[in-house]
Specification:
heterodimer; A: about 100 residues; mainly alpha; Histone, subunit A; two-stranded antiparallel sheet; 3 helices; flat; B: about 500 residues; alpha+beta; Arc Repressor Mutant, subunit A; nine-stranded mixed sheet; three-stranded antiparallel sheet; 15 strands; binds zinc ion; protein biosynthesis (chain B); Asn/Gln-tRNA_amidoTrfase_suB/E (chain B); Asn/Gln_tRNA_amidoTrase-B-like (chain B); ligase (chain B)
Chain lengths: ~100, ~500
């Protein structure tokens, strides 16, 4: 029986950098468990019908573009939405905390 | 930081058997990025080659670069891989500022190429087969500069600056199967594999594969198991080992370090390690995240790549002669030993010699100059042979001047010196420096007369039948003409004038 535990939800939240309160964890763990159960029910039917899982709604393959340069943004445009910048680069907070 | 006392290499190998896995990332030389049309040209100003797609702005959609897929298939074919008839891209999710999308577009369980091998040749000629697990397509990350720390390193930095020009440049990651059975030669096999792979990539023309520029980067995974056992030990992953020599050193160091930990009763932790060029050691990095923590899932914004068999065969038709096969052919054509060929390869002289031969020089002459004078100069200047300011055509011209008797070896060396100094092509240097062999009868005759007059004792000996003594007179002629005389002709004239038969 597929499902998801409260611990797994907490772990995923951590990986996704989401801060969840205890009651939110309870809430989402229950909801996600229901969703996974629903998807599993679909999978069961699809399995019987021998339908391969799909990752794209359209039956397309090999959509490619030629290796030709297209105009990029200017550095000013690229940085226009950056919360902070320095030396024409995106400025980000300290990556590693003190350990 | 704990310092591990290393066990000697021989001692380590006496008790343990190394198992290696090598992961090599090759940055493709396509004009544009893997999923957008931004230029990949090096040296552009920061954040000038970025667009909504490679910046991961909302709503931007990726489209696959056909040249990137072609290169991946050709690499796969050259590595004797099977090519998937249907495969997808996947999102590898992680939070790190070098990827503005917060995921890297990669391939997960459906690589474009898989199950291949590459035969590599060791220094003594032994051929070792390295099996290839897979080669898959992905994209490079942006470049971080860490500010505020003492050494420009991430530790102690107050903040970091990101340039995303490199983010999205196509990468092919080539992963070996566990390399077993190499024993004490494991470090050598690792180096030979990366060297051979680099030759292959260059021959395919898909990348310049310059390791010093990060166009090819190697991770060395290594574990030890007690001799005679089957089960693999826990591995360490040494990241970004970026020269052939370092690949060998990193493998060697890790063998000694693992052996030290294991034989003192400790356990190896699965972790990434950093390699240090200065002393060849590795230090602990982060403890490896589990693969499932990347939460891979099929990239919904890209459709599957399904290379038709016709296309794959067409690409197979574009494969060049493989480097090892080519080297075997050249070795036979040039009539040299395995060992000599290895030296030529190590010196990076294969292509220059081939080009010089193509320009009309005999192979032995071409090899002599590239492996002698020119290799010495490149070494002194600390540059690659091909970076010297002399062309194979110019070397061939010098060979021709020697063959026709206009230059001897000494003068040829001076001519090379002139070309390297930017004085012009060989003919121009010979002309400007006045290097042509003196063989016109008048000038040579005068020099011969002077040599005889200046050395009456020796001349007398020669007259008396001691023909070997003529060598000293030839030497005098050469000295007087500053080495520019045709020595053979000078000897003839000396004997003639002294009335003896040569
Ligand atoms: Zn872009």
């Amino acid at each position: 029986m597929p499902g998801i535990s409260r611990e797994e939800v907490a772990h995923l939240a951590k990986l996704a950098r989401l801060e969840l309160k205890d009651e939110e964890l309870d809430h989402f763990a229950g909801q996600l468990d229901d969703i996974i159960g629903a998807v599993a029910a679909v999978s069961e039917v699809a399995d019987d019908a021998d339908v391969p899982p799909t990752s794209h709604p359209l039956p397309l393959t090999n959509v490619m573009r030629p290796d030709e340069v297209r105009e990029s943004l200017t550095p000013q445009q690229a940085l226009s939405g950056a919360p902070a910048q320095e030396q024409q680069r995106f400025k980000v907070p300290q990556i590693l905390g003190e350990e | 930081m704990t310092v591990t006392e290393l066990v000697s290499y021989d001692e380590a190998l006496a008790s343990y058997d190394p198992v290696m896995g090598l992961e090599v990332h090759v940055e493709l030389g396509t004009r544009t990025k893997m999923f957008c049309g931004c230029s990949t040209e090096l040296g552009a100003e920061a954040n000038s080659q970025v667009c909504p797609t490679c910046l991961g702005l909302p709503g931007a959609l990726p489209v696959v670069n056909k040249a990137g897929v072609e290169s991946a298939i050709r690499i796969g074919l050259a590595l004797n891989c099977r090519i998937a008839d249907w495969c997808r891209f996947a999102r590898k999710n992680y939070f790190y500022p070098d990827m503005p999308k917060n995921f890297q577009t990669s391939q997960y369980d459906e690589p474009i190429a898989f199950d291949g091998y590459l035969d590599v040749q060791l220094e003594d000629g032994e051929v070792f087969r390295v099996e290839i697990e897979r080669a898959h397509m992905e994209e490079d990350t942006g470049k971080s500069t860490h500010v505020g720390g003492a050494t420009g390193r991430i530790h102690g930095a107050s903040h970091s600056l990101l340039d995303y020009n490199r983010a999205g440049i196509p990468l092919i990651e080539i992963v070996t199967k566990p390399i077993v059975g190499a024993g004490e030669r494991a470090p050598e096999v690792a180096k030979a594999y990366v060297a051979e792979l680099r030759e292959l990539i260059k021959a395919l023309g898909v990348s310049e594969a310059r390791m010093e520029m990060g166009q090819m980067r190697c991770d060395v995974n290594l574990s030890l198991r007690p001799r005679g056992t089957e089960k693999f030990g826990t591995r360490s992953e040494t990241k970004n080992v970026n020269s052939l020599r370092s690949v060998e050193r990193a493998a060697r160091f890790e063998i000694q370090r693992h052996a030290a930990v294991l034989s003192s009763g400790g356990t190896i932790i699965q972790e990434t390690r950093h390699f240090h060029e200065d002393d060849g050691s590795t230090t602990s990095g982060r403890v490896k995240e589990e693969a499932e923590d990347y939460r891979y899932f099929p990239e919904p914004d890209l459709v599957p790549v399904a290379p038709s068999r016709e296309w794959v065969e067409e690409l197979r038709g574009t494969l060049p002669e493989l480097p090892r096969v080519r080297r075997m052919r050249l070795r036979e054509e040039w009539g040299i030993s395995e060992h000599e060929m290895q030296s030529v390869l190590n010196a990076g002289a294969v292509d220059p010699i081939v080009a010089t031969v193509d320009a009309g020089a005999p192979a032995d002459q071409a090899r002599k100059w590239w492996m002698g004078e020119l290799a010495r100069r490149a070494n002194e200047d600390g540059v690659e042979l091909t970076a010297l300011p002399i062309t194979p055509e110019q070397v061939a011209r010098i060979c021709a001047l020697v063959a026709e008797g206009s230059l001897n070896d000494k003068l040829a060396r001076q001519t090379i010196e002139g070309v390297l100094a930017g004085e012009g092509g060989p003919d121009e240097v010979v002309e400007k420096r006045g290097l042509k062999i003196v063989s016109d009868e008048g000038a040579l005759g005068t020099a011969v007369d002077e040599a005889i007059a200046g050395n009456p004792d020796i001349a007398e000996k020669v007259r008396g039948g001691k023909i070997q003594a003529a060598g000293a007179l030839v030497g005098a002629v050469m000295k007087a003409t500053r080495g520019q005389a045709d020595a053979a002709r000078a000897r003839e004239m000396i004997l003639e004038k002294l009335g003896v038969e040569g």
